[in-house]
């Protein structure tokens, strides 16, 4: 698996340090409140579990699974909910935890969908921001790293359901993408 990686963009140590800092910032910002962290499956699972451990306040967790009708490495913005939240969020302080914002279409859909459920507040915490690719403007409250326009894998992010278990954020060798179906 490691042979498939061309380059490490964000190392395991950098991720760990940044997630700790985000956890401290979020704990300070939400002091005296009890937010619900909504992890977006499956990409945000590793980030969410580390972020949760970095919080020093009470917090609950819920999950949403969505599928974006995109092919390959492009998303279309047409989103389908595969798994909805277990609990209502009306009146709650909600923090969406997402792996990456690329065009912004997915997070825009999530924000609109969750806002209609009348939370007390709604913010976004994203590990990676591929800002150059943005098609719709979205305000991101907490950002781990800004990254260039490259297709990345690892730390929860996949290519054809593989590589989520890499402990760093990396870029695959081009021939790997070709050989695995050229999504
Ligand atoms: P957006 O709707 O274009 O912002 O895309 C967001 C979703 O596309 C993310 O939640 C990921 O699932 C996926 N995605 C975008 N860029 C990458 C990438 O570089 N690697 C893996 N998944 C990505």
Q: Give the biggest sheet.
A: 6 strands, mixed
Question: Which spans have pLDDT < 50 for at least 5 consecutive residues?
Answer: none
Radius of gyration: 16 Å
Domain unit count: 1
- How many helices? The count is 4
Shape: globular
Strand content: 25-35%
State the order of secondary-structure elements, H for helix, E for strand. Answer: EHEHEEEHEEEEH
Keywords:
183 residues, alpha/beta, Rossmann fold, three-stranded antiparallel sheet, 9 strands, 24% helix, globular, binds inosinic acid
SSE inventory with pairings:
Elements: E1 5-10, H1 12-29, E2 36-41, H2 45-53, E3 60-68, E4 79-83, E5 93-101, H3 105-115, E6 121-129, E7 142-146, E8 152-153, E9 169-172, H4 174-179
Parallel strand pairs: 2-3, 2-5, 5-6, 6-7
Antiparallel strand pairs: 1-9, 3-4, 8-9
Helix pairs in contact: 1-2
The structure holds inosinic acid.
How would you describe this protein?
This protein is α/β, with parallel strands linked by helices and 183 residues long. The protein has one domain: Rossmann fold (3-Layer(aba) Sandwich). It is 24% helix and 30% strand. It has 4 helices and 9 strands. The chain has a 6-stranded mixed sheet, with helices on both faces. The protein has a 3-stranded antiparallel sheet with strand order 1-9-8. It is globular. The relative contact order is 0.20. The mean pLDDT is 94. Inosinic acid binds at residues 43, 68, 75, 98-107, 151-152, 157.
